[in-house]
Amino acid sequence: MDFSQSLTMLLLTASLLLIITRHLARAVHLLTLQSLALAALAAFWGYSFANHELYWAAVLTLVVKGLVTPWVLLRLLKAIKVKKEMEMTLPMRLNLILALLLILVAYRVAIPLKALATLPVPHSLPVAIAMIMLGLLLMITRKKALTQIIGLITMENGLYLSAITATGGMPLVVELGIFFDLLVGVILLGIFAYRINQTFDTLNTDTLQSLKG
Questions:
Q1: Looking at the domain assignment, is residue 204 inside a domain?
Q2: Is 87 helix (H, G, I), strand (E, B) or coil?
Q3: How many domains in the chain?
Q4: Which of 19, 46, 171, 183 has the CB geometry, 3.0–4.6 Å to 99, for a possible disulfide?
Q5: pLDDT digits (tens, 9 = 90+) for 125-145
């Protein structure tokens, strides 16, 4: 297994571990590991294929997703003093089974799509699809707003991995637009989660049902 495949498997492993962890700080650290692996993968592909656009992708991923986003989430976690996710919509064992099934589905779905990939790298497209589905599963099965934010960013990481696999890198102006939107979104969602906790003394998004008229 070469370095590229190792990083791709690290992305998948971090995404899978997010499904089975209850500790919120650990979930943020796993998201950080996932983002750092994505940045390293983009840099390695930039070097391997002499593609300078992928260097920009690596730098922006490192700064926005590997440094700024975890910092915002950890500050939020410190402010709300919540350490563990106690409530889930599905049992942990069922979550894990669903996650493994989604990974198998991702590999099956990716078979006819491999011809569309610009970069000749194995596993990247199925792992990208798996990350999208695992992020969605995380958002559906968790009740804490912070964990749902992590699920959303995991989905975005999967979409970004599929984009650079399919296109071989995007123009810098497009990269800047994507990462600026992501950064603003994370900050706004963090403020929203903080306000939920301040108002309802919980991060459980089910409490928003009480706002219905």
A1: no
A2: coil
A3: 1
A4: 19
A5: 899 999 999 999 998 888 777
